[in-house]
Amino acid sequence: MAAQPFDRRLLAYTFSGCLLLLLLPACSSKPAPSSEAPAAPPPSAAAHRQQAPVSNGLMGLDGVQAPNSAVAKPNGHPKSAGAGNKEPLSLGPFDFIGPPLVAAPPKQAEAAPAPIQPSTESPAVPAPPAALKPKPKPDVRKNIKPTAAANAKSGSLTLSQLVRKYPDLLLLHGRTSSKQIALTFDDAPDTTYTPQVLDILKKYKVRATFFLIGSQAQKHPAIVKRIVQEGHVIGNHSYSHPLFTKLSQTGFQDQIEQTGHILKPLIGYMPKLIRPPYGEIKESQLLWASEKGYLIVNWNVDSLDWKQLGEAQVTSNILNHVTAGSIVLQHSGGGASQNLKGTVQALPRVIEALQAKGYRIVTLPELLRVTKSIRSS
Question: How does 321-340 read in b/e, with b if 16+ C-beta sit within 10 Å?
Fold first, then answer.
């Protein structure tokens, strides 16, 4: 009788193993769709004992002896079994002996790919084709004058900026190493003040530089010739005294060239020196003049006689500001209503004071060490 429980237990395990082999393919052939809720977890060992206890004195899978009494099955059919009952176990559809079935874990959704972070590195620049070679950089050297076509701007620089940028093309004064001063007179010739200025210069044996207006030179050619005959130098002051910065490039060139052609038959040369009316000029105009061989000359001492000042004020404005190499601005001509008596009256006193201080009054070509003419084209 001791071997009987052993035989029933062996039979039960064998049967449950066969049943498990039959049920596993059926369970694995029906995968749960991903859209449905995940399968419920398998019941715990305690719940399994309550649902399917083992009768007839068999040991449960957890090693606990089941009572020898009638057990109500889940299908409602009672079954009685005794310790001496040799009948085989009758298993219902919900009876299960053996290790608990473990449901397949739910299929987890694939993790979303990590977002691509933008690269902080600069994209690689493809190499240029072999046929397209980069142009060599221009050889920038000192003491090479820029050309008007390549470097000129449309008057964006002020006069002081032009002087700093082109110190050899736009001059305000001469050398300071020797005590020389240049007296200059604009807006000539006229028949009122130009002859008086010439008389004073002749008396003191002083030579000066006169910047003539082309239209005035046409009206008074005899005075123009006198200026040259008495040893003075003539420069170009435009044809009609316009503001150069308001002119086009062509208009500016016409003002210079027309005046030069008027003066050349009267004085015997094409003037090299140009003084812009009001001292204003564009960068493009400055560069064009330099390419043609002209030299722009302004001043660093203004007598302000164009304000029709008296003798004392004109004298003070000159003597209180001159230094070695100074270029002094005065006027020997003007409009019909222009009063330049202060200039004429102050000139003798100015000459005497400068000579007394050891200054030598010279022409601009001598002060600047340049020629007075250019080769006409």
Answer: ebebbbbbbbbbbbeeeeeb
Q: Are 71 and 79 in contact (CB under 8 A)?
A: yes
pLDDT for 89-120, tens place per residue?
A: 444 444 444 445 444 555 555 555 555 555 55
Q: What is the pTM of this model?
A: 0.61
**Active-site residue (options: 173, 237, 241, 331):** 331
7 assigned to active site = no
- Give pLDDT tens digits for 350-361: 999 999 999 999
The Cα-based distances of 297 to 184, 313, 338, 350, 366 in angstroms read 10, 25, 24, 22, 13
Spatial separation of the C-alpha atoms in residues 56 and 305, rounded to whole Å: 141
Q: Exposure string (b/e) for 199-208, b if CB count within 10 Å is 16 or more?
A: ebbeeeebbb
Q: Which residue has the tokens 């090479």?
A: 144
**For 306, phi and psi rounded to 5 degrees?**
-65, -15
Active-site entry in 186, 187, 190, 305: 186
Residue pair 281/159 in contact by the 8 Å Cβ criterion? yes
Backbone CA torsion sign across 299, 302, 305, 310: negative
Q: Specify whether 95 is catalytic.
A: no
Contact predicate 236/256, CB 8 Å: yes
